[in-house]
Amino acid sequence: MKATIENIRIDEKDRSYHSYILSQSVGQRGPSIFTDYWHYHPEIEITYVVKGEGLAFIGNKIVEFKVGQAFLLGPYLPHNFVASDEEEMIMDRECWGLQFTQEWLNSFKESAALGPLFKAMSFGVDLGQFTPEEHEDFANIVGTNSLKSIGAFFSLMASIAERKELKTISTTSAYSNVMSQKISKRMERVSKYIQDNYQQTITLAEISDIASMTEQSFSRWFRQTSGLTFTDYLMQLRTTVASHLLVNTNKPMSEVAEESGFNSSSSFNRSFLKIKNISPREFRKQKRPL
Predict the structure, then answer these.
(1) Of 133-142, 165-174, 251-260, 273-282, which gets the smallest average pLDDT?
(2) For the domain 4-168, what is the CATH code?
(3) What would the DSSP string read from start to end of 75-98?
């Protein structure tokens, strides 16, 4: 599935990168602070979830995100974040962000030490929970003091680079081609339709029609650009939603299956086992021990 390119202008008056804080309180009207379309941009991005939870679509993978979790996204890596309570906002949301170009970072000779990090970020890196020190660094990065901000920037990058293991997310690396406006609009329609309707049956004919393509052309286009068949992508999305429900609710298996978009318990169990290598019941026991 192709993604929309986002134009980010880094024109901060007192710093060489773009940093921001997005927040949204329960009851506050307006669009979600989390993007509702799959997009990419030439800048490197670090997204830090301070409040809220949901699903992150990164490359050809779908993962859960929770409070305190951070992600490092390389240039041109398609992504978007969707809150788990989009239909009825029941929790505060807050996201801190940092965007900068690799060219700017490479202008510092010291950046040579970041070679392994540059390679890993092209697949997206799940940074897990930030340490208190990393949280403080990010707070200074998005703060008002530009000198503290730049110092904290390099402190955070050093901390990330020193990690013994970098947990990559996508199985395909970042995109390097700029999409045409026509293809970008097609991607927006497909992405939004899947996210809005995964709880229902979505046929190949139906989604191909949304993309204004024949079924054969759509299947080839989807697999070439996402690394997954449409069926496997939909199964991955539904399984990730089911994982969230299994861990965070007491809903019975049949209800979890239905809310995740599976049309039968057998289909749910079979798909979950294929994706997670464990049954839904055992998964819940492991994640929610008595």
Answers:
(1) 165-174
(2) 2.60.120.10
(3) TT--EEEEETTSSS--S-EEEEEE
Q: Which of 59, 54, 3, 44 is nearest to 24 (CA)?
A: 54
Distance CA 201, CA 118 (A): 39
Cβ proximity of 179 and 4 under 8 Å: yes
- pLDDT value at residue 33: 63
Q: Which two tokens stand for residue 39?
A: 């997009």
List the domain boundaries for the chain.
4-168, 198-287
- The pTM (predicted TM-score) of the whole model is 0.75
In CATH, which superfamily holds the domain spanning 198-287?
Homeodomain-like (1.10.10.60)
Cα angle at 262 between 256 and 268, to 5 degrees?
75
Res 74 pLDDT > 70 = yes
Mean pLDDT of 161-181: 75
Beta bridge partners of 23: 94
What is the residue-wise DSSP string for 24-54? E-TT--SS-SS-SS-EE-SSEEEEEEEE--E
Q: What is the mean pLDDT of residues 250-273?
A: 93
